[in-house]
Amino acid sequence: RNRAETGGGGIRDVGVYNYGCTRYVSGEEPCSILYADINRENQVDVHAQVIFEFPTFRLSATNSMRVSRRQEVNFHGEQGMIRLSAPFNPGDFGEAYVALHKSRHEVIVRNFPGENQYVSQVENFNLSIRNQVDYPCPLEFSRGTQSMIDMIMDH
Fold it and tell me: How far is CA 119 from CA 90, 103, 114, in A?
């Protein structure tokens, strides 16, 4: 986690979740990176603020290993907002839930108690091998997320 040569840092170890989540939910790929401010300690990116331009929106993300432990992703739209609480490490950061904030203060919440994405990954991998079905997140998708990380590191 604190070694850049093994993929650690605020961008590779933490940000990868935000970048992949944004691509997955939106179905879009970034057009360009508009801004990147990276703080490093001993060659490790410990804090990064980035802004990406997508075809129909902008992503503003803060990824850090030097702030209080909290995870949240918000998708703001013209008719409301979707909030993901503890989306990447539920249990460590609280119970995972999705909240749909509609206009006029209506909120619809769906809870996901006991979720563990690492267990789900292993279970899906086993299903793919045993039943010869496609893995839900193909390698090509992961390459797209790596391209976003490369855009930040090259900025």
Answer: 12, 36, 11
User: Two tokens at 6?
Assistant: 């093994």
Instruction: Look up residue 45 and give its amino acid.
Output: D
Exposure string (b/e) for 21-59, b if CB count within 10 Å is 16 or more? bbbeeeeeebeebeebebeeeeebbbbbebebebeeeeb
| Closest residue by Cα to residue 153 from 2, 10, 1 | 10
Nearest to 144 by CA among 4, 50, 28, 35: 28
Q: What is the pTM of this model?
A: 0.87
Q: What is the pLDDT of residues 111-146, one digit of tens each?
A: 998 888 889 889 999 999 999 999 888 889 999 999
